[in-house]
Design brief:
The chain has 144 residues and is α+β, with helices and mostly antiparallel strands. Helices cover 42% and strands 11% of the residues. The strands form three sheets. The chain has a two-stranded parallel sheet.
Length: 144
Amino acid sequence: NGEKIVYGTKRYEEVLRESWSENVAVAQANGASVVIAGVPCFNVDDDPTGFDLDTRVSAERTAALNHAGQAFVESLGGEVKWIDMRELTCPDGTYEPTIDGLELHRDGIHYSDAAKPLVLQWLGQRLDELFRTPVASASGSVNE
């Protein structure tokens, strides 16, 4: 419709929520369990193309997106799960360029080929924790 949506405005967050709601509804209509992953930490130096990545992935902007995402997930009362990617990429609140001796990002944003298996394993563990179904034993106690 040609409407200009400006980051940081109430309308921006409304459009995000509308988009997330639509995507969740489509996924759930097809029987999917839905997980929304937050925005990880980034480390962007000057981009040689002149594209303003620093503004787009600034700590303030990613924190605002994560806050909005978590609030959206919480508003759904448990039917959608949240994974905080910052637990991996900045566990102490600051960007970690390496994890287990592996360079995390090849360019400050995209995961390096060496780190991709580590990231996938980490995500797999989080998904397992979110969706593991406790199993009752013969004694009636619950085992996970």
